[in-house]
Amino acid sequence: MATITNSSSTPSVLTDGMHIMVDALLKNGIDKMYGVVGIPVTDLARIGQGKGIRFIGMRHEADAGNAAAAQGFLTGKPGVYLTVSAPGFLNGLVSLKEATENGWPVIMISGSSEREIVDMAEGDYEGMDQLNFAKPFAKAAYRIDKPEQIALGVARAIRAASSGRPGGVYLDVPAALLGATMDQAAAEATIYAVEDPSPAMIPSTESVTKALNLLASAKNPLIFLGKGAAYAQCDDMIRQFIEQTGIPFLPMSMAKGILPDTHPQSAGAARGLAMRTADVVMMIGARLNWMLNFGEGRHWNPNVKFIQLDIDPTEIDNSRKIEAPVVGDIKSSMKLFLDGLKTIPVKASADWAKLLDADKQKNVAKFAARTSSTAVPMNHYNALGAVKKVLDKNPNVYLVNEGANTLDICRDVVDMQLPRHRLDCGTWGVMGVGLGYAIGAAVTTGEPVVSIHGDSAFGFDGMETETICRFKLPVTIMVLNNGGIYRGDFPNIGKDGDPSPLTLDGAAHYEKMIEAFGGKGYYATTPAEVEQFLTEAIASRKPCFINVQLDIHAGVESGHIGNLNPQPVIGPLAEQNKKPAK
Predict the structure, then answer these.
(1) Which structural domain, as residue segments, surrounds residue 248?
(2) d(CA 216, CA 324)
(3) Where are the beta strands (DSSP E) in 90-194?
(4) At residue 582, does pLDDT exceed 50?
(5) What is the pTM of this model?
């Protein structure tokens, strides 16, 4: 603050753009920020910290964005992250786009160079037209040019990030704005809290009636729960509807735990049969995108009809016809569905439940033999079977998961008992989100987090290990090391003597990383050691790292989505790909 004297000798207290920005964020309940500081936002972060914003300084802007996005998913309110101009801004765009694709509310605030120099292409320090670069990656993008508009810009960003289908919002703050001054009393008069930033969107009663009639006529109804259902935080209503109707359900990965995976109506262990046999499928906050084969093909009953509950009308008929669209927010929609059951009763048949239960029992027995094996060197199944034993006893732990085989198999093996306790690569299927999500979950909830990575996935964000130690977060990192991308036994088909493009170090002691930063490292070679070390790590509530040594032959190429990876038909690689993994 500064005091000046005007012509009438009346003292005037000035403030600047940085103080106004912090005050506007705090007024709207934003008391956490993630980021990497530098020109021109260093003092914005320091002032924020001084006024009560917890600033989590991270090692890469994409990780900061993922941490903020995780907070947005868990709380339903926008997380905020801060980047420097140009290169730092570009680093932050990936997580901005990821949040937008996932439907998570987040605000990316970036410092930028002087507009007049950038617009004339005069070559300013880190000069870039950041606003226009950001637009394709965000739900909305704004630039604030005057200190009088800072509070308005913050309010617009919060409303855009939160309302309708949530997403990422970019907020450009030029260096000149941050240093601009105005009268403090006048600045304070501009600051306000956003009123109802995410208003209810109530669907039409006609659409709900049509959907209920379609469900009532179904022989084999099925419910898919998506992360939109988890984000809506109306878990009790969803549970009540599922239990009252008796309809089997399948959760997408981040919807696991809305109802426990062990719930008798869960069809998780009979997923294939359920999808091939269901004649009416109700999608609650789930999308018919690539993860569900766009609702068509060999995975689905060719005559299946879909009910889709979504807040975004453009999502309806996105990839195929939706027989009964219900456009509105999930919470309002589920209330109408529960009310509608009073006049249109829906009850799944006992025969449908018996058919799925028989398939579940067969598959569970087959699966148990793999996850309970004590064989060493370990594979993904028995290593994650040991993890399951520990997390079954610690349902409050947040699970973060990324990789290929590590992701796919963990999703199948480890049950979730509570909603919004699993975070993974989501709609885009990207890697490099894990430790950012883990930090966001730990900072937001204060609960223990277990972050499970493949050895390849860990390489994208591994330096955040230092952040976890610096902030003394209750995060346990686990790397399942099989020595490569997918696995570690791919040979180089050339003659240069280099490792294969898929080969990493199968003997690396990743746990030593955390020891350099003051955390506790473990090296596990058996399922019993995985169980023991993970139990100890969670109980300690301190930064820990478990390097889980797997067989380099463990894993399959591209995990569960090998169909997306084109295969050569001629040459030595074609012959190699014909050989099954050992």
Answers:
(1) 205-349
(2) 13
(3) 106-112, 140-143, 168-174, 181-183
(4) no
(5) 0.95
